[in-house]
Amino acid sequence: MASQSQAPDAAGGSRQAIIEAAVAEFAANGFEGTRIETVAQRSGYNKALIYRHFGDKAGLFRAALGSKFAHRAALQAKEPEAVGERLVYWFERTLADPHFMRLIIHEALGDQGGEVLDEAARRRYYDAHIAGIAALQQRGAVSAELEAPYLVLAMIAATVFPSTFPQITRLVTGQAVDSPAFRQGWGRFLETLSGQLQPSAAPAAESTGDER
């Protein structure tokens, strides 16, 4: 463990190490089950430095969750244009980062319907998804009959459910969520599903009977 007199380093290495340790602890144990002592042990820095950086456990949880949303926002900037590829992209990225959805689940267990942590910033993240779908609708790549916020919610469900509930995935498909068979099969399904989101072909003009 780092020296008990360890001061925050100029490059922010101690802060980042603590956040990474906190993400792992909160993802595994939730807010109530996580202790500052265990975060300190995992990070290699002392409790005093954690309190100096984050104030209290709530501040540490806010920083941990914020770091995951910052990572998701960086991924968002690189998402593919095509809806099918976009769905596969988010499924694979969620599968590769199980801590994100575990943090969200622990947060949801304590949700009382009020404001969530860093709500304004998180709304901006989801608003960007909605705006992206609305832009595709304006270009005719996605059916305008589907309300963009509800479509985004359905797309999130399709991309996070298998890895968030791996036991249900196994029960329904007989495959492990991280197996090549499931990943390939689910990817094909998402690509096919995206085809159903395209606008219906316009009906052919009725004949007037006087075509020459």
Any descriptors?
Tetracycline Repressor, domain 2, 2 domains, mainly alpha, disordered C terminus, 212 residues, 10 helices, Arc Repressor Mutant, subunit A
Question: What does this entry look like structurally?
Answer:
The protein has 212 residues and is mainly alpha-helical. The protein has two domains: 12-64, Orthogonal Bundle (Arc Repressor Mutant, subunit A); 79-109 and 116-198, Tetracycline Repressor, domain 2 (Orthogonal Bundle). The protein is built from ten helices and no strands. It has helices spanning 13-33, 36-43, 47-54, 57-76, 83-96, 98-109, 119-138, 148-164, 166-173, 180-195. Helix 1 (13-33) packs antiparallel against helix 2 (36-43). The longest helix is centred in the first third of the chain and has 21 residues, at 13-33. It is globular, with a radius of gyration of 22 Å.
Distance between the termini: 88 Å
Q: Which fold name fills CATH's third level, the topology of the largest domain?
A: Tetracycline Repressor, domain 2
Q: What is the succession of H and E elements?
A: HHHHHHHHHH
Could you describe the largest sheet, including whether it forms a barrel?
none
Oligomer: single chain
Shape: globular
Number of domains: 2
Give a count of the beta strands, DSSP E runs of length 2 or more: 0
Number of helices: 10
CATH architecture of the largest domain: Orthogonal Bundle
**CATH class of the largest domain, anyone?**
Mainly Alpha
The CATH H-level homologous superfamily of the largest domain: Tetracycline Repressor, domain 2
Q: What is the helix fraction of residues, given as a range?
A: 55-70%
Could you report the average pLDDT, rounded to the nearest whole number?
A: 89
Alpha carbon gyration radius: 22 Å
What structural category arises from helix and sheet content?
mainly alpha
**Low-confidence segments, ≥5 residues, pLDDT <50?**
1-11, 202-212
